[in-house]
Amino acid sequence: MELPARQTCDSLLNAYFLRVHWFSLVVYEPKFRARYNKIVDTGLACSTDHGFLLLLVMLLILGSWYTSKLDRHEDQPQDYLDTMRDDFLRLVREKFMDLMDEDSLEFVQLCELLGSFYLYHGRPRSSFSILGAATKTAQAIGLHREPEGPHTFEDAEERKRVWWTIYTWDRSVRTAPVWKVHC
What are the Cα distances from residue 7, in Å, to 2, 4, 88, 105? Predict the structure, then answer.
């Protein structure tokens, strides 16, 4: 997959971390940015970066949604951002099931972000299913427990943030009313 120019990616990630991240701490920013910078600086990603790249695309989707007119550069007209967001959302949908088989932290993060995106953008049934997959996968990979063996502060912090974000979403979405529209 080809990412937009570095300036565009940086701008969209900044929009995500400014406008979305504060209520959904599912990504540990310092760790994410370090990995992002390494991939963008070198222009190289490994097959093991598959989950991270889909997570990056999801952050770009959310960043593009929440980018205001004041934040945009000349090379980011609204129709460009809309097209990019639609293309990236299509990519995430296409690759979603492949990532599900990996039982990875990135899959849980992607589920939380995609599920919340769908919840706020008119697809509550899809949202409930995806957020449910996030909860079950998080439990399957043991995010609700202390990790065994040695681990870095960043890894522990990321696991903790992901688990509590997923847990909170699962509890709040489960009790939210589902509005039915009759035509």
Answer: 14, 8, 17, 27
In this structure, the dihedral spanned by the alpha carbons of residues 127, 136, 155 and 171, taken in order and rounded to 10 degrees, is 60
| Cα separation, 65 vs 16, whole angstroms | 9
- pLDDT tens-place string over residues 66-77: 776 555 555 556
String of DSSP letters for 69-105: TTT--TT--HHHHHHHHHHHHHHHHHHHHHHHTT--H
* DSSP string over 137-151: HHHHTTTTSPPSS--
Domain regions of the chain by residue span: 6-175
Tell me if 75 sits within 8 A of 53, measured CB to CB: no
Q: For residue 81, give every residue at least 6 positions away whose Cβ sits within 8 Å of its Cβ, in sequence order, or none.
A: 64, 67, 72
Q: What is the pLDDT of residues 77-96, one digit of tens each?
A: 668 888 889 999 999 999 98
d(CA 78, CA 103): 35
Q: For residue 67, give both structure tokens.
A: 């980018």
Q: Where are the alpha helices (DSSP H) in 121-175?
A: 124-140, 153-175
pTM for the whole structure: 0.85
Rg (CA), the chain: 16
